[in-house]
Amino acid sequence: xxxxxxxxxxxxxxxxxxxxxxxxxxxxxxxxxxxxxxxxxxxxxxxxxxxxxxxxxxxxxxxxxxxxxxxxxxxxxxxxxxxxxxxxxxxxxxxxxxxxxxxxxxxxxxxxxxxxxxxxxxxxxxxxxxxxxxxxxxxxxxxxxxxxxxxxxxxxxxxxxxxxxxxxxxxxxxxxxxxxxxxxxxxxxxxxxxxxxxxxxxxxxxxxxxxxxxxxxxxxxxxxxxxxxxxxxxxxxxxxxxxxxxxxxxxxxxxxxxxxxxxxxxxxxxxxxxxxxxxxxxxxxxxxxxxxxxxxxxxxxxxxxxxxxxxxxxxxxxxxxxxx
Length: 324
What we know:
The chain is mainly α. The chain is 48% helix and 8% strand.
């Protein structure tokens, strides 16, 4: 691939192509960085020469992405997505600085946007019961994955990558060691990848409640392949296929149609209602820190807080005597 002649004549678009070509990272990370470069950075800033880019111009671009960056509707983009766009530009210009193409990384002067915590959507207890009944009556063995997600909090990629070798049917423990994703390769073709989970913290051991363990033991005896959630021939289920199967089940049974990730939020919500401490919940979910858990579930922890506060009633003094 042609590189560049002098530092002054290379455009951001040309540098992004060079940078992506040489970038070494996980395939799904590369696919996401490539998508952001092609969809956001190149159209807006691609014709600019690297040494002409200014921090004020980048901040204006990021603000425009926040207000009008949704590629489908033209509406707002989430702050997390805008920050990811900034991260890609920051990395690319950092590499340009190392290559001697620019004196400073002007993207480092553009501020990250403040991310407001969003209340996670979870199914109610009644909806959860309806989902479990529907999954049991569907005569689709793949839908055992719905119950696994509800009672372990596994992400969809972790669930579909799960093999029977990862499940200790004696001790009742699921070992999360990998995740599957559907992403584009460097040649532009869609591919299914089995890789390490989202973060190192995502590698974890999750206890399985007794009733789910009983169902897993029965499923293991019927299994035709290595995967816990599998097609009828035992092969791995495609991510999109499973999302469609889940949505179809909700639609047929007239259950509120949230995405599959809502099952993970439902697990967290139900287990918080038992009074679990945040550190244990964080470990079960595979979060990198307790801070992450608190940010995501700050609203949901109010139930646990209220229940704890109610316990103070037994110390209330009435007529000079404490309640017992």
